Structure formats: structure tokens, C-alpha cells
Amino acid sequence: MLCPYVISSKSIKKLTVTINHSYHVDRSSILTLDTPNVVDLYYSDFPRRKAPHCHLGSLAKVKLDLHSLEDDSRQVQNDADVKILISEIRNVKTLHLTCSAVEIISVCCKGGLPVFNNLVELMFSSKKRDWKVLPLLLERSPNLKTLILSGLHRYTFGRRHRFVGIQIPPINQIKMLSIMQYQGSATELKHISHFLLKMECLEVVKIYVAAEMDDLKKMQLTEDLLKLPRASSEVNIQVL
Length: 240
Hints:
Elements: E1 5-8, E2 14-18, E3 31-34, E4 40-45, E5 53-55, E6 61-66, H1 74-79, H2 82-88, E7 94-97, H3 99-108, E8 121-125, H4 133-139, E9 146-150, E10 158-159, E11 162-163, E12 176-182, H5 186-198, E13 204-209, H6 215-226, E14 236-239
Parallel strand pairs: 1-3, 2-4, 3-5, 4-6, 6-7, 7-8, 8-9, 9-12, 12-13, 13-14
Antiparallel strand pairs: 10-11
């Protein structure tokens, strides 16, 4: 018999849910989140065979940190109904996806993603093979204004040794772009150049260089970034 897990409260506004699988937890168990007034949710769990039952009508901000177990098979991951969980949070305004969450989404949501009509800020972290999720999210987030990317130096995909930039929807509303952990590689510079040309509404680009970078290299990178062509001459590029 499955043991249900229920979190129920009509008053709390901020909720952190962390499922620790260092202890035995039956992933076939049903998790219920009956928290209709929660505005800010941090959710860390492993793929479940049954999607959580959610009552999250006020949700505005989510950090999603999904993980896979070392002994998971692809079949188990495919059986996990992550798509339903993603659909439950589709009305948020701010969404933060960790590297591991993006990896799970790339496996479990091959059939597509819901439309995030209210999403205005997306923080996206990824490893090399999972950047394919970003164009899907951008396509399904028509009102996105702020995009924060981490790990861009890991994205090196090309076609026959030719650089291929991340696909940006032709009609996008992105006004602020932040690049975290900038390493200063030639590929990263090409990506940023691509963004500057494809994001026609851009107003501010913030480049956060890696902590270990010395001042001389940072100065050279700043010069290189400021020389890049852009769709609008009004874009303010900041190297931080």
C-alpha cells in the first residue's frame, strides 16, 4: 500500500520541499501540495511515477531542482510524469531551472512544453547536451523580459564545424540578458554576438566574468564585447 505525503496549509506564502532519497522513499507514492496561497516555491525531488497533486493557484516564483537516481533507467525517467508537474507551474512569473532539472526536462518532456504566458524572468543553467531545452522554453514564453544564463561556455554545438547559435524566436520581448560565469572563450563571444543581433528589444546586457579572471584579461574581454554588432545601438553592455 502506497504511503501518501501531504503538505497542506492555507496561510503559508513561501514553501521549500526537499525530498532526500538517501533514505528509502517510494517514488510510486503520491505527493500532495495543498498550498493555494504559496507565492514562492523551491521544489527538489526525484522523478516520480505519479505526478504530485498540486493546488498552487497563487504561485509566482519557482526554483525547480529535479534529480535522477544513479540506478535509474531511462524507462523510469520516462515514466515519471514530469510534464504534469511543469504544467502545474506554467503560470509563474519567475522560473529558475537548475542544471539537473533541465536534464530531467530534456528526457521527460520530449512531447513538448506548456505555454508560460506569465513568465517574465527565466534563469536557465545547463550542461552541454541539454541546451536544446532553452529554445523550446523561449518559444513557449512569449512575454519573457529577463533571461539569465549560466554555463554558456558548455554549449559548443555546431553543424559541420560551423557555429550555430541558440534559436531565438523572431518575436521576442527580452529586454535584459545576464550571462553568468563568463569564461571569455571565442564560442561564448559568438553566442553573445548572436543574442545581440536576434534580441531586438534588448536594453541591458550584464556579463559576470568568472571569479578567477584577472583585471588585464577582463579589460580585453570588455573591449571585445563592446565591439560586437547589435540590433540596437542603445544596448548597454556591462562587464561585472
